[in-house]
Write a structure and sequence with these properties.
Elements: H1 4-19, H2 26-33, H3 37-43, H4 47-70, H5 77-94, H6 102-111, H7 115-131, H8 133-139
Helix pairs in contact: 1-2, 1-4, 4-5, 4-6, 4-7
């Protein structure tokens, strides 16, 4: 069973993905989640703190549902890349291409006014790249498969 905090983050994520972080108010999130201000401020000191919780959720999901599954070391590097891109396309289709990339949107909307957002995203991608180094080394020198 999910906690109240998780329900608030889920509601905020749905809204922010479509409307954007700056165009989603705390009131919108409360209405979507069905919780009151007391619940919100019990878990989050501010909307910015909720933004970082959304960012954390997105990065966890990106890692567990996309990167780890696509870049399985047992697969050929080209297949890993194809699986990654196929999954991105499928996710966009499921959303009928609305909302764009939640990570990109959050990075753009939050990084200008919240420098630590940029640090969180950069650290995630640095870690992802380092952990995928075997793919990079295996892929170097490989040619794309014939079509």
């Amino acid at each position: 069973m999910k906690s109240t905090r998780e329900d608030i983050v889920d509601a905020a994520l749905r809204l922010v993905h479509v409307r954007g972080f700056n165009n989603t108010s705390v009131e919108d999130i409360l209405k979507e989640s069905g919780f009151g201000k007391g619940n919100f401020y019990y878990y989050f000191k501010s909307k910015d703190e909720l933004g970082f919780a959304i960012l954390e959720r997105v990065l966890e999901h990106l890692n567990s549902e996309l990167i780890e599954k696509s870049f399985d070391q047992s697969k050929n590097p080209w297949q890993q890349l194809n699986d990654f891109l196929d999954e991105l396309v499928e996710r966009a289709r499921q959303r009928e291409c609305s909302g764009g990339c939640i990570l990109g949107n959050l990075a753009v909307e939050m990084s200008d006014i919240r420098a630590s957002c940029e640090s969180v995203i950069l650290a995630f991608f640095c870690h992802s790249c380092e952990s995928r180094n075997p793919v990079k080394s295996r892929a170097s020198g490989l040619r794309p498969p014939p079509e």
